[in-house]
Design brief:
Blueprint lengths: L1 H16 L18 E6 L5 H4 L2 H8 L3 E3 L12 E2 L4 E3 H11 L7 E6 L3 E2 L10 E4 L4 E5 L15 H19 L18 H6 L6 H15 L8
Parallel strand pairs: 1-2, 1-5, 4-6, 5-8
Antiparallel strand pairs: 3-4, 7-8
The structure holds zinc ion (ZN).
């Protein structure tokens, strides 16, 4: 009889201590009121932009529009000849100057050129946001396996990576900050491995922060719309 008890106990032990906790896959959304617009910046395939809509609609529970007719070129003066990359802030400044949307709209530019910022040691950026202008920018180029020697095309992977970066930068436009939780979408990945490791979800802490931001904005007429 006790033989069975041992088997049951052992099974329980295996299941409870089991494989070291797996990455949590949570579904964390924030409920915003303002619309989101996606705008191609320079030469990028439309399919990579339209593919982002369903996930963004879920994470922000708002209307997400693809504004292909608003496409603008990547500004030449943003190009840094030494680095052979574009200065992200200059591209963003050009977007703010040329793209006209309702004041509360959040605008995400999507480009296929390599971007960087002189203010950071990082060799490149996946994206950058300019909160004052309600605009952000993401670059697909380093998310595409075809960028690397021998890399095979994988649209699904590229889109998953773009979704995460788009949610991160739009999260910044809606008042959230970078976090240390490597699984939260608000974490700043230093490379593709870290980008692939994190989820496309807002963690509970970020969801709470957003609720508080929204609540305090109700009492402050200068806080702007969420
Ligand atoms: Zn978080």
């Amino acid at each position: 009889m006790y033989k069975y008890a041992i088997i049951i106990l052992a099974t329980l032990l295996i299941f409870s201590c089991g494989p070291k906790e797996k990455i949590k896959r949570y579904e964390g959304n924030i409920d915003v009121d303002s619309p989101i617009y996606l705008v191609p910046i320079g030469d990028i395939e439309d399919r990579f932009i339209t593919a982002l809509v369903p996930k963004l609609k879920t994470r922000f529970t708002t209307d997400v529009y693809v504004a292909l007719d608003k496409r603008i070129p990547v500004p030449d003066d943003a190009f840094d000849y030494d680095k052979q990359q574009y200065v992200a802030m200059y591209v963003l400044a050009d977007m703010v100057k040329k793209l006209k949307f309702a004041p509360d709209a959040r605008v995400l530019g999507i480009t296929n050129v390599d971007i960087f910022t002189p203010e950071s040691d990082r060799v490149f950026l996946f994206g950058m946001s300019y909160k004052k202008g309600n605009m952000a920018l993401i670059s697909k180029v380093r998310m595409d396996p075809r960028y690397y020697f021998g890399g095979k095309p994988n649209d699904q992977l590229v889109i998953e990576r773009m979704e995460k970066e788009a949610i991160h930068q739009l999260g910044k436009l809606f008042g959230l900050e970078n976090v240390y939780d490597p699984e939260c979408v608000m974490y700043v990945p230093k490379d593709l491995k870290e980008l692939d490791r994190k989820t496309d979800s807002f963690c509970l802490e970020c969801q709470k922060t957003f609720q508080e931001l929204k609540k305090s904005a109700e009492k402050n007429p200068f806080a702007g719309k969420f």
